[in-house]
Amino acid sequence: MPIATVNPADGETLKTYEPMGEEELERRLQLAEATFRTYRLSSFTDRSRLLLQAANLLEEDQRDIARVMTTEMGKPIRQARAEAAKCARAMRWYAERAEELLADERPADADVADSGGTRALVRYRPLGPVLAVMPWNFPLWQVIRFAAPALMAGNVGLLKHASNVPQTALYLEDLFHRAGFTEGCFQTLLVGSGAVDEILRDERVKAATLTGSEPAGRAVASTSGEMVKKTVLELGGSDPFVVMPSADLDRAARVAVTARVQNNGQSCIAAKRFIVHSDVYDVFAERFTEGMKALKVGDPLEEDTDVGPLASEQGRADLEELVDDARRGGAGVLCGGERPDGPGWYYPPTVLTGLTREMRIHREEAFGPVATLYRAADLDEAVLIANDSPFGLSSNVWTQDEAEVDRFARDLEAGGVFVNGMTASHPAFPFGGVKRSGYGRELSGHGIREFCNITTVWHGA
């Protein structure tokens, strides 16, 4: 794939970039290593000041960078502005809390004495240059939720962004430079995916984080395992949205629409499989389908657009194949399901019913505004359907019954259980999944410690 901005609303190529050559890549790796030697010694106060300045600049740039994101990958402009604002808030969150999150920990005196020591502490030290391989769907947020904690921990970042969002990638490097970070603290590497393996094998790169597809995750994990380097992987999801009889059906149906089509349906934590108790299935299905039909599909730069184009022509083709496969297997279509005429990579909000385990969409992630509806006879069947997926990123549960909440929280195979609300990422809460959704955690104290050397300092008598 060329490194280029291609407007998904009309397919026009706006800007192209030449990949970095070996000489420039080597210069940047040397710079990252050299910068880390001094940056790791900086104080939390200095790091916080720089990150807060970056947050201020991002807020000033909000409208401009939102337009860049929308032009590069098609998200509705209102959502692009909200993404920029969310990034600024996350930077402030880490700037204000990192010192506390990474404070030295002191084991109990009794345990220290039992070890034969007089005192001990656990200290969190940075690892070094960390490679971030990031996707296009949230081109700012995915990077910031790595960069903010990594920089506050004293690491330096190397960003290999998706090849279809080069302007956003370059903006991020410039943002940190303008904020006052030393040049080598955060660098964008304009390289193709084929260069990732070589970069990972470089001894100067100490760890990697990837958000993306399963094949990409396997490749990074394989090389990192061979090189014995720490990795954090977030590889997507097919999140269940379970509706029980005690739920507020009007609100559940409204939130379900947003949960499915946020970011044009191209979100790892978007609800994708809607599992509804038989007692309320018909009512929910009707209200949900009405909401999906009412969405405005159109130019993502228009303020009232709800759903814009998919980010790439191939992405739309992949989504169509999943829908067509389900149809051939006997699935019903309550709305959508047909590619519209005209330019751009648009696909309508679609609701499928009558799914079976043999259909590809039952086990594969649908990355676009396509929802699958399942009927469950009771709570036990709802849990079985929800867990019948290779993914386990997050989940949504709608019920007023606390016993049901406890059961879902205990039995759903996911990294998150959101009750009576839509799954969302927030810097205060750990984010990540199980099964093929990956491993490790981003955000919160768990996320900032992922790329730290957890060091025991012990003193004898």
TrEMBL record:
PROSITE patterns: ALDEHYDE_DEHYDR_CYS. Pfam families: Aldedh. Keywords: NADP, Oxidoreductase. CDD domains: ALDH_SSADH1_GabD1 (cd07100). Residues 3-457 form the Aldehyde dehydrogenase domain. GO terms for molecular function: aldehyde dehydrogenase [NAD(P)+] activity; succinate-semialdehyde dehydrogenase (NAD+) activity. InterPro entries: Ald_DH/histidinol_DH, Ald_DH_C, Ald_DH_CS_CYS, Ald_DH_N, Aldehyde_DH_dom, ALDH_GabD1-like, GABD/Sad-like. Belongs to the aldehyde dehydrogenase family. This is Succinate-semialdehyde dehydrogenase. It comes from Streptomyces griseoruber. The lineage of its organism: Bacteria, Bacillati, Actinomycetota, Actinomycetes, Kitasatosporales.
